[in-house]
Amino acid sequence: MTDVADPVRTDGTPTRAEHFAEMADYLAGGVERAHETGNRGPVRYGADGRLHPDILDAYWKHGFYVFTGVVGADEIAELRADVAEVIEGAPVREGAEVDRHGRPALGRDFAVEPYIHVAPLSDPWGGTDALAGRHQVQMDQPTPDADAPHEVVYLIFGMCQSMPSALRLYGHPDLMSIVESINGPDFVPYNDAIFVKEPGLGGSVAWHQDGVTHWDSPDWDMGIHGFNFQFVQHDCRQPEVHFGGEERQHIRVGCGPCSLGHDVGVEQDAVH
What is the pTM of this model? Predict the structure, then answer.
């Protein structure tokens, strides 16, 4: 695992609005650099049916690749509708049996609890021993607005059980072809999670590398931890989206032989 420097701590906690203002230039610069990196574009295949060599080279060089235009507008609309319904059906608070409308909460009969709640704008894992300590540094935790709820949905699991559109996304032919080009034909999709980041409320996910099991393996290679797809179902390329504009969700699907390592992004233009 790559170690990161200790953060510079300052006294005082910024408000949500102050934090947004402080981050604006940083985020804008990140957007600019992201488009200059050369690891973004539509899916392209070579004569052998595998991903084009230029895409694979960029993936192994940078550790991630952003595909555009993979999922169609109708599919995005279905995913947005299903995710909205699942969020609406969440327990009103951690452990509650009903949603905020007083209806039985979704997933009470699931084998695994599908929701994790956190305090607004908090980072529950950064700088802790959670998840093998892979989130080494805690993110800033701005003070939410006075009318913010005490808890918000942070993660949703079991999407293939609760969302027909997510099950179809899980088996998307282009995504499966991408996996085969990287992992080979013998692979297992085995995990999923939806990160919910409502503007001004959503919890943070600290910088981390997902793989924790094979760093010291004598047979180590760059693909040993597998990788995950991250599907961004809302346009989050502009700084204002995360903090004050449009809600966004990240749908993550793990593919590989063990813990996750690299990322393959699936970015969509906003569809209104």
Answer: 0.80
